[in-house]
């Protein structure tokens, strides 16, 4: 985890760089029109070109060569705001381009997703504005000509669309991560069967169906002497047995979600629309399959004990149904293990 963190953090410079080039470059177009109209001198033109063209490349080099690219890029983002303030003063506060530059510089900080970065950037913006204003004698010419308005349009349109597309991409990534998290919450990573919480939801729904339509069976399954296997053969061998049992249950379940990992080495399988004879036959087939599968596998041999409980009117809740199957499972353990016992009723 620690080894992967720097690489994950270094994505920030790569994400910010194209927007810095786009934003500063488009701001440079509008600024050039303002400076041309004002017949500004070469020092003013030179500083504008440094901000619009040189700074994005310098910021990229700083981040790439830094031992901590994430931290360096945060510093670059703060400098962006200082330069935005400086550019507004350099333009003698020409209204439209100055407002756009300061606003987009703030929006860029918000779009990074870094907490409170936009607030931290405001003193930097004010500092750049004041220092450059001192150099220009606090000159102000807020009037915006039609030529400048037209030159500002690319900055208004292209930068806004670019930020929107980047935000959409981030939203899609977040949705993908949420889907993965949802899958992880529903599926047991080792065995592939449903996790306990999700299995309980599925079993609750099937129990409600069975009360209306009639028949269903619950199998509680426990690997015999699983602790001894872990202690004497190793946890890797135990994991192989768990995986094998999970694969078998996935093949036997009538529809997805009915096989679940209830505990460490305890599993549950809900079987809809069966009578007792069919459910008992399925349980016996499961028991025999596990014995044969593990006997021929690379790991140790393993057997399972199964408790079977049919849906009954006495089962007022899923907990009652599970307790009936658990009681049958304990009888199977007491009877010597590697067998199937049925709950009376």
UniProtKB/TrEMBL annotation:
Protein name, UniProt field: diguanylate cyclase
SUPFAM superfamilies given in the database record: Nucleotide cyclase
Superkingdom as given in the UniProt entry: Bacteria
The species this protein was found in: Luteimonas yindakuii
Cofactor(s) of this protein: Mg(2+)
Transmembrane helix keyword on record: yes
Molecular-function annotations in GO: diguanylate cyclase activity
Chain segments annotated as transmembrane: 17-36, 42-61, 82-102, 122-141, 148-167
Keywords assigned by UniProt, alphabetized: Membrane, Transmembrane, Transmembrane helix
Enzyme class label: transferase
Domain GGDEF as annotated: residue spans: 214-345
EC annotation from Swiss-Prot or TrEMBL: 2.7.7.65
Keyword set includes Transmembrane helix: yes
Catalytic reaction annotation: 2 GTP = 3',3'-c-di-GMP + 2 diphosphate
């Amino acid at each position: 985890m620690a080894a992967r963190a720097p690489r994950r953090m270094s994505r920030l410079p790569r994400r910010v760089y194209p927007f810095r080039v786009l934003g500063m470059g488009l701001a440079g177009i509008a600024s050039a029109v303002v400076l041309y109209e004002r017949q500004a001198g070469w020092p003013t033109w030179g500083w504008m070109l440094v901000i619009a063209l040189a700074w994005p490349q310098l910021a990229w080099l700083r981040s790439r060569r830094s031992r901590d690219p994430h931290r360096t890029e945060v510093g670059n983002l703060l400098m962006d705001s200082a330069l935005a303030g400086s550019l507004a003063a350099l333009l003698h506060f020409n209204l439209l381009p100055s407002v756009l530059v300061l606003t987009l510089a703030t929006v860029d900080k918000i779009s990074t997703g870094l907490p409170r970065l936009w607030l931290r950037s405001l003193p930097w913006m004010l500092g750049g504005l004041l220092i450059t204003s001192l150099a220009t004698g606090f000159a102000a010419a807020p009037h915006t000509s039609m030529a400048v308005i037209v030159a500002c349009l690319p900055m208004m349109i292209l930068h806004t669309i670019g930020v929107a597309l980047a935000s959409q991409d981030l939203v899609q990534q977040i949705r993908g991560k949420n889907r993965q998290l949802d899958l992880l919450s529903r599926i047991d990573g080792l065995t592939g069967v449903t996790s306990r919480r999700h299995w309980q939801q599925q079993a609750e729904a099937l129990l409600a169906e069975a009360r209306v339509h009639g028949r269903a069976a619950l199998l509680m399954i426990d690997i015999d002497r699983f602790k001894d296997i872990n202690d004497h053969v190793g946890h890797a061998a135990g994991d192989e047995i768990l995986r094998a049992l999970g694969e078998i249950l996935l093949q036997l379940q009538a529809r997805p979600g009915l096989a679940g990992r209830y505990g460490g080495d305890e599993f549950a399988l809900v079987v809809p629309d069966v009578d007792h004879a069919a459910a008992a036959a399925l349980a016996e087939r499961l028991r025999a399959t596990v014995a044969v599968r593990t006997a021929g596998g690379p790991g140790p041999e393993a057997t399972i004990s199964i408790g079977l409980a049919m849906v009954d009117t006495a089962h007022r809740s899923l907990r009652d149904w599970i307790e009936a199957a658990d009681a049958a499972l304990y009888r199977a353990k007491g009877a010597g293990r590697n067998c199937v016992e049925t709950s009376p009723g």
